[in-house]
Amino acid sequence: MHRRHFLAIGLAALAQPGFAASTPYRLGPNGATITYLFTLNGAQVKGTVPVGRADLQIDPGNLAASTANVTADIRRARTGLIFATEALKSESVLNARNFPQARFTSTRVILGPGGRISNGAAIEGNLTLRGVTRPVRFSADLFRKRGSAPGDLSALDVRLQGRINRSDFGATGYGDIVENPVGIDIRADIVAA
Questions:
Q1: pTM
Q2: What is the pLDDT of residue 188?
Q3: What are phi and psi for residue 172, nearest 5 degrees?
Q4: Cβ–Cβ contacts within 10 Å for residue 174, how many?
């Protein structure tokens, strides 16, 4: 259910001379946030989980070879409702005490039209929650910073969106009041390392 999440990649116009090899990226000054959305008693509830670490490799000459390895701190998950936050971190849902981190490791980048990580691009990978690993897919967008020069790939914005079923990870607690699907929206500010 993470967010800020789980960091993936989407980029417009990366094939620039001078960036022929894979470049490592890390979280920038604005970091990354995973926003998750679930339904509680018929009402939409939004929460966040901070991304603790993101190891990204982006290859402008071969964007499909780009990779992401991201961890999020489940102990710092929050919703706007204290009881919902405590329930979320409980043993029957995310079990934050025994499984304090969530991890996403990419396995495949699917480029959008024009060979970019945007407009229909996706990133597939393995998401681990509560010690359970399942394949997931997120739509992906990767862009240069607004106002940056066309060849400036030193700082990028990432957005990933998708949906998971919490039951796939054994997070079945409070099933009588919380629906199974969870929406995920991850936004990240990354900089070349």
A1: 0.86
A2: 95
A3: -100, -5
A4: 16
Which residues fall within 8 angstroms of residue 193, CB to CB, at 6 or more apart? Answer: 23, 24, 25, 26
Tokens of 102: 């969530």
Work out the angle at residue 169's Cα, subtended by the Cα atoms of residues 165 and 175, and round it to the nearest 5 degrees.
Answer: 60
pLDDT at position 16 is 38
Secondary structure class of 75 (helix, strand, coil): helix
Sole residue written with tokens 């190891």: 55
C-alpha 41/C-alpha 86 separation (Å) is: 16
Instruction: Give the pLDDT score at 6.
Output: 28
Give every residue of the chain whose pLDDT is below 50, as ranges: 1-19
- Tokens standing for 130? 């509560």
Question: What's the rounded Cα separation, in Å, for the pair 5 and 47?
Answer: 12
- pLDDT for 28-52, tens place per residue? 999 999 999 999 999 999 999 999 9
Query: What does the alpha-carbon distance between residue 137 and residue 135 come to, in Å, rounded to a whole number?
Result: 7
Half-sphere exposure of 84 (CA within 13 A, CB side): 18
Token pair listed for 181: 């699907």
Q: Tokens in use for 131? A: 């010690």
Q: Domain spanning 23-192 has what CATH number?
A: 2.40.128.110
Q: For residues 151 and 18, is the Cβ–Cβ distance under 8 A?
A: yes
Three-class secondary structure of residue 80 per DSSP: coil
